[in-house]
Amino acid sequence: MKLTERLRSLTRPVRSVPLARHLLVGLIAFLVVAAIIGSSSQYLQTRYAEMAFFAIAAGGLTVLTGLSGQLSLGHGALMAVGAYAATLVLERTGGETLADVFVALLVAIAVCAVVGVIVGVPAARLHGPYIAGATLTLAVAVPRLANQWEFLGGEQGLQVPVPRAAELPVWIQDLVWFFTAAEIDQYSFLAYLGWFLLILAFVALANLSRSRIGRRWRAVRDDDVSAELAGIHLGRARVVAFTVSAMCAGLAGGLMAMNVRLTAPGAFTITLSLTLLAAVVLGGLGSLTGALIGAGVLAFLPHFATDLGESAGLSATQAAEVTPVVYGLVLMLVILLAPAGIVGSLRMFLARSSLGQTKEKTT
Amino acid sequence: MFAVEDLSAAYGPVKALNGVSFTAERGQVTAVLGANGAGKTTLLRTVSGLVRSTKGSVKLDGKDITRTATEKLTSYGLSHVPEGRGVIAELTVVENLRLGGLHRATGSEPMSIERVFELFPRLGERREATAHMLSGGERQMLVIGRALMARPTVLLLDEPSLGLAPRVVAQIFDLLRGLVQTEELTVVLVEQNARSALSIADHGVVLNLGKVVASAPAAELAADEQLRHAYLGF
Amino acid sequence: MRNTARRAVQVVCVLTTASLLAACGAGKERPSEDGTAVGVTDTTIKIGAHFPLTGPAAPGYSEIPSGHQALYEYVNDNGGVHGREIEMVVKDDAYNPTNTSAVTNDMILQDEIFAMVAGLGTPTHRAVVQRLNDDGIPDLFVSSGSLQWGDDPATSPMTFGWQPDYEIEGKIIGQYVKENMPDAKVGLFLQDDDFGEDGEKGARQFLDSQIVDVQKYTPGGSTDFSPQMSSFKSKGVDLVLGFNTPSYTALSQIAAQGVGFKSKWFYSNVGADPALVGGLLASMTKGKIPAEQGVKLMDGMMTTEYIPGVDAPDDEWVKLWQKVWDEYSKKGSEKLTNYRIYGMSQAYTFVQALQANGKDLTRESIVETIEKEGASFEGPGLAPFRFSEDSHMGISGASVVELKNGAAEPLTPVLVTDIGDAPIEEDDSAASDAPPASGLPE
Amino acid sequence: MQQFLDTTLGGLVLGAVYAAFALALCLIWRSTRIVNFAQAAMAMVTTYIALSLINVDVPYWVAFLAAIAAGFVLGAVIERVIIRPVEGKAELNAVILTLGLFMVLHGLTALVFGVQHRGFPAPVSTNAMTVGDTSIGITPFGILTIVVVAVVMAGLVVLFRFTDLGLRMRASAFNGEVSRLLGVRVGRMLTLGWALAAAVGAVAGMLIAGGDLVNPAFMDPFVIYGFIAAVLGGLDSPIGSVIGGLILGLSLSYVTGYVGEHLAPLVALGILMLVLLVRPSGLFAAAAARRV
């Protein structure tokens, strides 16, 4: 008891500053993740990498929808913008080194920030079905721009150069070898990279949502009129939320390009935007943990469902249709039965039972 | 005869009506009075099934209509007249009236729209106007006229004077008084404007915090200074 | 602290769940590699391919893998190749390059295929060529006539074409039109990718001055081609050259009728199957013409031919395919089609390559074998392959045909050429090859 | 000139179908304040039902009626079972719900009918008509399309303006509580509204499919184009929806004909944003501007 108290007092500085606390959790999480990635097959590593970029996009979307109350069905389009931006940079730099990769991703984020403002300003004035319809149109329209300009590669898209393992800095290769006793290769590299950035992004988002900005978003979501009366500039708060969210989508798009190794309009369908929404709704609007769970489902469910469908005697093509049905059912059932999503419902359940406990104690 | 017995209703944990009983006689105006939040509107909404009652009953000529679906009440001859905002703003005057006549008291003769226009000549002048273009007084005439189209025997009126100029209120109450006699109506008049209401009512019921605190002939209530000060605000 | 701990626990929980989920279906151990290549054991060879089983390119093309599978089963039942049975994994990419990338990833990492054989489509396969070559996976007999499979073996050493490329097809068509219809005003109807581009390149060698309009379409985009056909009509086009997939042949015909555009039509082999397109056309018209009579709707259209098809039932090769199909088609009710013949012809070439390679099979050895011996493979192709160390291009020629009642009537002998300025020559030598009596390559 | 005429005629036909579709969205919006993002998928389902009938040699027009009936039933069932619980709740819920429905219907159709493209016949010729020697860019089927949409519109006008049923439906849509007090069975009217809308959507689906290839995604463009057409005319105004549909059809036809098909969605987005930001209640809404 004494010892734990001393420990607590020692760690107080870390715990009392949210950023430090989040970073600490992030670091621990990354070590755990790295251990898992290092010991997985190449196939699983690609799945983890996919989960990472879905989670980043879903995290951004959940901040937008869950915290500031705006809906976006256009995040597929924003991912497309990020993917094309990153691809164009990688094409020029060759994409061989780690620096190339980070430059490409930073450009993707920056471009999406700009696009986020451009889209966010009009979107801030819309609500409900109108913003849904407008962003859905965006999701359809933006990828088609690839057919307009030759340098975007048209329908067949652009090949994405990916860094070869040998080009990575030696210290990274050594570090990976030290921790996992396995050589880093393209697949594990993308998984490490994805999860590193995912954790970084989530720490940033978690911090943001605890900050003044996050509180403003919630105020705007819960009651825009009183938020406005309290001196919050509604439009500005919404545009900031949209931009942050767009930056996440941009990062996710950049990572997606590297994983898919091709950036083509066919990747950014309405279905992509809708499945992102499904991930966010499934996890619970506004919860980053929920976004992570949702992304896990996105990365693993299609393969699982397809296998299930095939073993149930469906042809391969029909089995592939099981997944969207599941996503759709998830959206509907969550709205009808558990509007708070998985994490939200769990939290309510826990809150109720802990409330019960405290009552018992006091009486 | 229209009777409410021991009626109770609640919004979540908050009791809005607590054992309300009173009767309203045919050919009479019964005023239900009380301050804002006393439960007057809840009373009407509970009677017409918009709010679920937790206890008690509502009887119309001895028949229990407590849990009857809202949509069926007009066929029993009971019309609930929401306050003036209850016009359907997007429909025209004629359409509002036509709508009122679609679901009449069972066995009753249809009432012609022209008859309503005789009662409320002002509406006749604006027959093709959409309701959102009407003034407050005109809207009030429209909801009353619309209710009459269903040939009711019991008319529940919710705050007909709300937001109207005193002159218009007087005009509408006069009309109402006249209707009670010609159509043999039972009128339950929920009003915050107690003074005007008591001037045309035969009987008065005073509500406070969901309970009946007084029930007496209108003249008696109007004369009770203490009651007036405590609950009726004049 | 509670918050922190809870968060950490949450993260760990999520990861554990994810790994468990993954363990359910995905996480297979890599097989031990003792001397043989990935995907090859003493008794099996596992290959894979991506096909559009769904989407706008699926009509027709989705039948190709069934041809492959029928022939492999025939081979397997006759003792396999050097004692090994061939197993083929087919994945649907819906003709969407992003899907191709994803399913190829799965085939490499999850199914662990030895080689990609007959992956279909220009835009689709283009998405994975680099990946396959990077990983040293043989990428054989791509089901597409794009140049990029074969014109640069230095960059893509593992990739081989199979059918005549679109450039030589364009050249052969171009020369024919120039010689026989010198006054025609030509409109090009192109798929908006390398497919259309390569075809245009070949055709322009001969027709540059005759082409008056170029219209393109995006696969998976709008299916209403009235604007394109209106443009042809307004420019006075009287001969359309189409480098497009079969559904789009049908859609362009419907749209042309819709805007009242009349013309002579010349479709690339890829999009000109009379049975399929005729069937689609029949089902889209008023009062539904029976599908069998749909082929008549294609009468007078021109195209090219480089392997014998169902319209030549007496051809020795077609007899073989018919026999194999009757015996091994999974759904007995389905008929032999040109697409299934295409698949079987391709599969035949692959079996030939495996035979020629001998018992010691590695990813490198199969490539070497095709480079050295591929040019002399005798098969159903009307013209020989061009395989060598310097070229991975497939069949070297075709003949121009006109469709009449579903059958192809030759307008020229087999014309053989190569990309670039190579001259076009008549050469019927490979057209007379007959299959061995066993039906198995020797 | 010839091309302009052809493009215009093509745009009118397309616009007529958008109009029908926007009308369906408008019917649902008016009755339940919900934008039904699953409308296109519902129409796709009914079209497949018709196609299955046609493929077993049921006459075209019987299949056409069957599609309408199927739409009617489908709309009613969906309203009763799925939509009823979220009516009057946060608008985000309804949006997500209908999007989920969109995905489910899409996937189920693919599972049941397969995903391959199939030809869909037209009841009349799809060849261009000729005036004298020159052919003009409209087909008998195009004319039929315009006529059918006009008939549907006229039918709805008659229903809403001149019948008691229409009056009840309108009243329920505008003010459910008051309508109930007047004896209107509001629940039934809302169900009927969805059923009618789905039936109109089914008609639109049949008109789009005729003489074309269908697959489970063939109605997808209508998710956005129908919405835009409806918003263009003001979601509340049936007449507005029709005009919005025609404007959109013509605009997109010109863009496709003269600029490029790939820019059509972008132009549509531009039109939508312009309308939403400049005249949020639509070009033809009679009521005062509502918040969007």
TrEMBL record, chain A:
This is Branched-chain amino acid transport system permease protein. CDD domains: TM_PBP1_LivM_like. The chain crosses the membrane at residues 20-39, 51-67, 102-124, 189-208, 239-258, 288-305, 325-350. GO terms for cellular component: plasma membrane. The keyword Metal-binding does not apply. InterPro entries: ABC_transp_permease, LivM-like. It holds the Pfam family BPD_transp_2. It comes from Nocardioides albus. It comes from the Bacteria. It is a multi-pass membrane protein. Keywords: Cell membrane, Membrane, Transmembrane, Transmembrane helix. GO terms for molecular function: branched-chain amino acid transmembrane transporter activity. Its main location: membrane. It is found in: Cell membrane. The lineage of its organism: Bacteria, Bacillati, Actinomycetota, Actinomycetes, Propionibacteriales.
UniProtKB/TrEMBL annotation, chain B:
The keyword Repeat does not apply. GO terms for biological process: L-amino acid transport. Residues 2-234 form the ABC transporter domain. Keywords: Amino-acid transport, ATP-binding, Nucleotide-binding, Transport. GO terms for molecular function: ATP binding; ATP hydrolysis activity; branched-chain amino acid transmembrane transporter activity. Belongs to the ABC transporter superfamily. This is Branched-chain amino acid transport system ATP-binding protein.
UniProtKB/TrEMBL annotation, chain C:
It comes from the Bacteria. Residues 431-442 have a biased composition (Low complexity). Residues 44-406 form the Leucine-binding protein domain. Residues 1-22 form the signal peptide. The keyword Coiled coil does not apply. It holds the Pfam family Peripla_BP_6. Residues 420-442 are annotated as: Disordered. Keywords: Signal. Belongs to the leucine-binding protein family. This is ABC-type branched-subunit amino acid transport system substrate-binding protein. It comes from Nocardioides albus. The lineage of its organism: Bacteria, Bacillati, Actinomycetota, Actinomycetes, Propionibacteriales.
From TrEMBL, chain D:
The chain crosses the membrane at residues 12-29, 36-54, 60-82, 94-115, 135-160, 189-211, 217-235, 242-260, 266-289. It holds the Pfam family BPD_transp_2. It is a multi-pass membrane protein. One of its GO terms (cellular component) is plasma membrane. GO terms for biological process: amino acid transport. The keyword Cell membrane applies. It comes from the Bacteria. GO terms for molecular function: transmembrane transporter activity. InterPro entries: ABC_transp_permease, BCAA_transport_permease. Keywords: Amino-acid transport, Cell membrane, Membrane, Transmembrane, Transmembrane helix, Transport. It is found in: Cell membrane. Belongs to the binding-protein-dependent transport system permease family. LivHM subfamily. This is Branched-chain amino acid transport system permease protein. It comes from Nocardioides albus.
